[in-house]
Amino acid sequence: MLNIRTFVGLSLLSVLLACGGGGGGGDNGGGTTPPSTGFRVTLDRSSVSFDYEAGTLATPAVVIASSSGSLSGNLYIGAVAEGEAIDPYIEAVIEGTQARFTLRPKTSLAAGNYSGRVLLKACEDAACSRTIGGTPLPVSYSIRVRPGLSASPNPLEVSAVSGNTAAAVLKITHPDGPGGSFSDKPISDGAWLRTGTHGVGELPVSFRSMRSGVYQGSIEISTGSRMISVPVKYTVTPPPGGEFDLRASPQSLSLAANEGATSASQALQIDLPTWGSDTLSFATAYEQPNGEWVQSNSGWLSVQRTATGAGVSASAAKLSQGSYQAQILIHPSAPGTAVVVPVSFTVGAGLQKPADQQISIQAQSGSSALQGQTSIALLGTGTVSWTASSDASWLKLLNPNGQTGQALRYQVDASALESLPNFSDSEATITVRPALAAISPVSFKVSLRKALPEVHFAGPYFLLQGQTNQVYLSGRGFSQLQDVASSLQLSGQVASKVSRISDTQLLVEISPTAGNSISASIRNTLGLRSDAATLQVGGAQSYAAAAIATPGNKRTILFDAERQAVYAVNVENQTLERIRFNGSAWQRDAINVPSILDAGIGPDGTQLVVSSKQKVLRLIDANDFSTHLTLNHTAGFLEALSYVSQGIPAGHNGRSWLASGEGWGSTLSYFDHRSQRIVTHTNREAGLAEDFDGGPWLAMARNGERLLVVPNASNTAPKPMLYLDSSIDMLKRNAGNMSWAYEMQLSDDGSRVLFDFETVRDSNFTLLGQLPALPTGYVRRASAMAPNGTRVYVVAYPSSDMLNPNAPATSVPRVFVYDSSAANPGSLVLAEVGQFNLIDYPACRSNEASCIRPRATISPDGQTLFVVGNEKLVVAPIPSTLRNSTGARSNGTAATPVLRTYLWRKSAA
């Protein structure tokens, strides 16, 4: 089928043509050719061929058309692709009397052989109703697409209910056919992912029963030099009735016997985790006189496995009178958690020493969890009175007097519990004193573990009113929650969706209805306060076009939607500048930061993180610009790319990411906003180096999840680009063979990334499209990605002003807008959807190295572009028709051929 595709516009070449006689060629278009003098079009070749492997990009072929002779009238050129194998988007570049046509296969071709031809035409009108110069000229093509290595489905996503296993099958397409051999390597934490014996073109995959949560892994499949990685997502939901870890009851044992005797056996009830356990092992440890603990299986404690748990007894055959402490360690298979059962053994006459007690306060703990009791017993005949006391104000004794044989009851003071630190242990000692002086007192400890779920940070912290926002909540203790949605409190708002990623991460969807702050916290049964994160809500903002003088070379631009403020790192003047909108105009102020290097907005938006070449990190209040913290960092901060930075990125887990070091051997580190410390990041895939060569430099999505890391400063020997998702906290290699990039602009959720004005990729680093060349006469200077990833904005300067930097400007910068919402079927070139102008130049107009390119960013509502340079901050409202796209890309069908031509020569008449 004939398939003709519209071309993008190219340069116009004006030539004065002579009038006269002569003849010209024609095709089946009909009509006669205007008088000419030997006008002809010739090609440098009549055929092209391509040979490449499926899933890779073929090297384009270039066909050169040359014109000779003269004619009266305009000359247009165009190309028509026949068949379905050649990309119908055929670029043409005109250079004098030559036109270069670039041919490439479609990106979606399956393995196989293809052939056809391309007709190159010269015409006297734009509709090409009449061909001339001996055209159309055919160029035949042949395409061989060799089979590649692939797996389906990719990625692999499997779900199961905790307590059950799961299975799946990967279909393998092999370059050598279905019987081709391959090897595989499953990668996961906790060995929950396994692969089986290969079938013909199949790889069976099995999944262990696990506790509820979302598990991420991968399977590497290789043959020869080829290797692909299949991401694996294993979602495990709680079983009906909820889940629990390994449990032992009672939580502690108190045994007693006289010298030479054996205590009565006590039953220890053991409940296996709801997700099961392949193995269950027991170990015993004994306290030594010096206070150390030694594990041994030949001590005085005996643990015998039973159908419901274990029977525990103690022998005093080799013990003298006294009190002894031991522990029973019960180990389930992963991912279960080991349980420690304290055991107290009293030998001889006297009071039996109670075992140390433990109280745990969690989300579902009720008032009964605050109470406990232990028996006070005499290891002999008769009855003795006793009194008891506690050395901690938070632990109250309900019956401080009694007789042996009675239980001592105690209770945590609820009013004091509020002030005790969360996720830490508090300890009290209870001493029991017999009324008879001949019997020694006994003491035991009561340990209180307060571990209420709490929320620390949210990403993004700024939400748009009336829009659905996806928010990561970071904290700890989330695995305790049986019903996550009902446990989450959002101060008057209701989340439409809540899912638990891990013990420290929740993913929430919320549509705020009012422009106020929202407190995100986790409720608990006891009604105690816990840490909460604050979300700021604001509506869309419209700003008029403006240009504000801001002299000095800039490295970074940041936009604070909450305060309607733009921050710029002025490395030339060593200042952090702030340009705020007061409701009617933009106001500029600045603070001095000696040797300022970079800046970023903190994870909760209340502070700015500022680094300097003097090895100093500052926290600056975003409201009043006062300095809250000054921290010396002896390793210093990387100074690579002095004028290229996306700022200091902040993750939704409370980390501001930094490049530590002063050159080769630098490290990836972060400032922890809770501990107020700089920490070196070490969690990474196997085989990744712990330091970087002249890198890294970083970029992050606004929601604080996806961090991109360029590892080294050599584009001649680049290393693979790395990435880190805050919810997983593992530095990994990218799956798209990406390496070098100076600049990276991410959508708010990281699902789209613009690399170096050139390509747009998705979160799996799959190539979605390439930016086309700008029209002749424009030079790219800055770029930005729309918040939802559907638009790319490229700021370009007119070449006429760039070539005359000292003369008054004759034009203004133009913004070219491209559709990045989805891959363009049959072509890698992103479609241009429109253009608009800036009102002024933000920076100098020169290609000299001393003229630093401007920096650009965009508001979270996608309505305003901000561009700053060494001269001005330019505020550019984006036309409504060129903002975020909310629908899918609309592509034309190939059923109706369309030919668009280029004006090659223009008549002198």
Automatic annotation (TrEMBL):
Alphabetized SUPFAM superfamilies for the sequence: YVTN repeat-like/Quinoprotein amine dehydrogenase
Highest taxon, organism lineage: Bacteria
Signal among keywords: yes
Keyword terms, alphabetized: Signal
Xref: InterPro entries: Ig-like_fold, Quino_amine_DH_bsu
Cited Gene3D superfamilies: Immunoglobulins (2.60.40.10)
The keyword Membrane is annotated on this UniProt entry: no
Signal peptide: 1-20
Name recorded for this polypeptide: BACON domain-containing protein
Native source species: Chitinimonas taiwanensis DSM 18899
